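Memo to structure team: turn this sequence into structure tokens by end of day. - J.P.
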Amino acid sequence: ERWDSVRGSVKLQLAEGHLKAGRLEAAEKALDEALAMMPNDPNAYLIAARIRLAQGQIGEARQAVAFAAALSPGDPEIHYLAGQISQRQDDLPSAFEHYATAAELSPQTAAYLLAEAEVLVAMNRPTDALELIQPRLVDFDQNVSLRMLSSRIARIVGLRGPAVEFCRDALRICDGDKNLQTEYGNVLHWAGRYEEAIRVLEPLVEQTAAVIEPSAENASSAEQPSRPSTLLMLADAYLNTSKPTKAMAVLRRVMKENSENMTAWRVYARAAVQANDFESAIESLDHVIANSAMTSETWVLLAYVALRSGDSTRSREAGNRAILEEPGLAAAHFLVGEAAETEGDVTAARESYRQVLKLEPDFEPAARRLNLLSMRVEAANPEFAGDCPDDVSGMEP
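Reply from structure team:
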């Protein structure tokens, strides 16, 4: 019996190794041999449940867990696996109960606490999840996953400071981890701490800039360039700190590596406008138009750039296109009004400014322009002075 027990344990270890490597048939064969030697070992049924779960056989996995629970009712790993099975069946309340039981039976196992919190988030209870984790972080001083989950939950509920602090604490544990540094830069960007985000993301981007075009002898070992999302985040941080030239340099890198990334072309147009480089902005927007990737916001941007470039006709067309897609864009109505006014179409301009003020009554530039146009109409046609009730702002022209 002792020899069978030793052999069975070896077979179980072999089955677990095959399972971790994804060799499910080999795992199942080794498990069958182990069960023949140790038919009452709860660990064998736990491994059986994991195999069935990997195979998508949820009912058989649940049955195996039930056998394991009957043999060892106080094993937290059994409740943890039962929670995973319930979660696969979208039974989140049951999954939470199992995870909570596992965490209660083994309070120093971080995986159980993590699963308990994650299922609370899935149940749309992020505040409860954060309240569950936060007091326990001191018990898991070196656990990165709990801190990163806390940071993500803090983002969900809009807690900027805590989101940054949790992520920074995780980075303290794994100092030098580029993925964590990128995530930290992401959180800083989300929190509106753009200068700090630049200090974190800029070195990461610069480290990979030198290996975008590696020499032939080291091409195979070269690092991959930064992900486009990281570059776009850095570019946006530059834009929010009035560094459009730097933003354009970063965006050109994205556009070179992936010319189909329309987000980069749109942001590049924004950066070019901020840099007063209207020619580059128009070129970028023309590329976006050619790829049918314009949004209502980029139509507004084109209306602005075209107007500032002296093309009032294109400005009106772009503004009207933005209005067609999103009628509530006050800025689009205002630009259409400006373009119409430039072309001498006073009637259309006044109507556009009225639309702006219907949407945003406090839009002072529209109120001022409408008053000025009304005064010009009254001056040109004094007999109709009482028919132009457009003094909506009461402001001196």
